[in-house]
Model the fold of this input.
Amino acid sequence: MCLESISFLLKKCDFFEKELYFIRKKSNFLIKINEKFLKLISNKLRIFCRVANYREKVLVIEVSNAIQKNMLNFEIPNVFIELRKKYLPRLKSIHIIINPFLENVLE
Done:
């Protein structure tokens, strides 16, 4: 009974270790893409935007309010082309969402 419990715990630890590895790898990827993204947008927008996620070939960008979303929409075509050409060749689209709490985080 005790050996079975230890075996079960070791398997569970192995599972969590793999999950943590995946999380670490994805977060490092998002950090790098965020740095590339911020270099491609105008200075006045950088303090209001960040990469939130990349899933199913869609880059999700968070902005702090609707004004910044509208401003970013004008820059997205060029940003999309550059990101796809240099960093994310499988990128299908960029989705912009408003996160009002982002303003407090980025200050």
Q: What stands out?
A: The chain has four helices and three strands. The domain at 2-106 is CATH 3.30.300.180 (GMP Synthetase; Chain A, domain 3). The first helix runs from residue 2 to 40. The first strand starts at residue 49 and ends at 55.
